[in-house]
Amino acid sequence: MYKKYLLTGATTQLGKHILSLLLENGHSVRVLVHPDDETVFDERVEVFRGQSFDKESMKKFFELEEPEFFLAFFAASLL
């Protein structure tokens, strides 16, 4: 089992559903959201503000105390 799930696209309809399923199943989740996004997340969610196309943002997003993680990424919002 992974220690933490990293999720991008968490503010999209599909992303919200994936996040909900992860939380319902007791998983630890870190989400990447745009710095200007005002979405309010469940207190169990670790919110990281950054941009997916910014190298420094992504390096920080991936920094974890425990190196075992699973990245759930999708680009549905880009279509």
Describe the secondary structure blueprint for this structure:
Elements: E1 4-8, H1 13-24, E2 29-33, E3 45-49, H2 55-62, E4 69-72
Tell me what the structure shows.
By secondary structure, the chain is of the alpha/beta class. Helices cover 25% and strands 24% of the residues. The chain has 2 helices and 4 strands; from the N terminus they run βαββαβ. It has a 4-stranded parallel beta sheet with strand order 3-2-1-4, with helices on both faces. The longest helix has 12 residues, at 13-24. It is globular, with a radius of gyration of 12 Å. The mean pLDDT is 84.
Taking the alpha carbons of the first and last residues, their distance comes to: 31 Å
- The total count of helices amounts to 2
Low-confidence sequence ranges = none
Our Rg estimate from Cα atoms comes to 12 Å
Strand order of the largest sheet: 3-2-1-4
Oligomer: single chain
How much beta, percentage-wise?
15-25%
Please describe the biggest sheet, giving its number of strands, its sense, and whether it closes into a barrel: 4 strands, parallel
Spell out the helices and strands N to C.
EHEEHE
Helix content: 25-40%
Overall morphology? globular
Mean pLDDT: 84
Report the count of strand segments.
Answer: 4
Structural class: alpha/beta
